[in-house]
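During the reporting period the student researcher (J.K.) took over the structure-prediction task from the postdoctoral fellow and processed the backlog of single-chain submissions. One of the processed entries is reproduced below for the supervisory committee.
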Amino acid sequence: MPVESRVLTPEPVATLGDYLRQGGGRGLDAARRLGPTGVIEDLEAAGLRGRGGAGFPTGRKWRTVAENLSPAMPATIVVNAAEGEPGTFKDRAIVRANPYQVLEGALAAAVTLGSDGVILALKATFHREIALVRAAMDEVRAAGWAEGVDLFVVEGPSEYLFGEETAMLEVIAGRPPFPRVAPPFRHGVDETGTAVASAASNVEMAGPEAQLMPPALVNNAETFANVAAILAEGADWFRAVGTDQSTGTIVCTVTGHTRRHGVAEFPMGTPLGEVIDTIGGGTAPGHELMAVMSGVATPLLPASALDTPVSYEGMEAAGSGLGTGGFIVFDDTTDPAAVAQGVSHFLAVESCGQCTPCKQDGLALSQLLDGLRRSESDREALAAIEDRVSTVSERARCYLAHQHQRVVESILRLFPDELAAHVDGRRGAGRRELIVPILDLADGHAVLDEHYARKQPDWTFDDTYSGQSPADRTESSQPE
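J.K. obtained the following structure tokens:
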């Protein structure tokens, strides 16, 4: 299947004028013409699913927010461009190519839901993307696109959980990126300060009959770019590519043990092997692909599954998941124990500690896997690993712990002999596998955040670990 360019333009769109000459702005015009009901019906007809990882139907999310609007305060539109998933660079690629389409989709949401504010949330370290978004916002304001709508950029922390939508709302409200119990359509953005006691996880959830807080609509940057295109071109145009259950295109990233790294847009349903070959050019000469992992959110797929369609239903049927379409490729030089430990370490460190099993069992699991990688484990250690995998997700309020469980479980299932070789003396200590976010893509190569290796489980970069979780540290810093 050919590479597409629906939301990832082949050349950067330099100005709003250029975007308008290429047909931009028609989606926002359509939103004003169709009205709230028409817009939501178009999104539902298109079958667009959120491109942030979960794949939740976009039209259904917008309808839910519309049904929970506050009569007193307008909803807030939030563009999630935080992108901290290892192996993923697609949102930054889209913003670099055309920030105007992302803003157009967000403004269409503001028109649809009667919002007076659009927030684009990025990590503070995304300097290039922040500059592009701010400049695009200035042009959009000057062109009259945002009349009655305030546009803001929120520069958030580097933590992985900043990309979780309820934790993102906490950051926007001035608090740490700790996931909430209250969903965005029941408790949106507030301005209650930084005290932990005021966190949304501790408040009564509102309903449409007694709305305590206005809701927030949080969608991924790629999702909003697709919204603008759907409203401009129509639901049938969007469905012209993809599958019945996964319509449209997906912007994929390929890194790891391939000849080159990069980002490209494909019709949903494209075989995984074709995505990897088109972007990555295959593995290095003389080596074979061993497995592929979509970020740190889904189970690994073995080389035998390269014909799997890159779609929500296709990846799920293969025992994995699409995630954000950020595929990390591992060749036959890879030690599966090192991959498991790398994923486990990343997720254990990034856990906020609100859920004790997620943090404590996660850290214990990471240490056990490190001992396995070093060939310092016995059969009892393997049993302990399986035990920790079974408990790490207990009572979890967000998906991070479930990711931890699913990824490590898949490695235990796919590579039992390779892991056992570390125990019975058939394999020596393996090198560490760096599973961290991408800082940049330059000259066909992913620049990884190697500094991350120094990050402590309390989210500091101190020489020694304090023994506290981030949630513990935040609570202990608050006055009684």
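The committee noted the following: The first helix runs from residue 16 to 21.
J.K. will present the remaining backlog at the next meeting.
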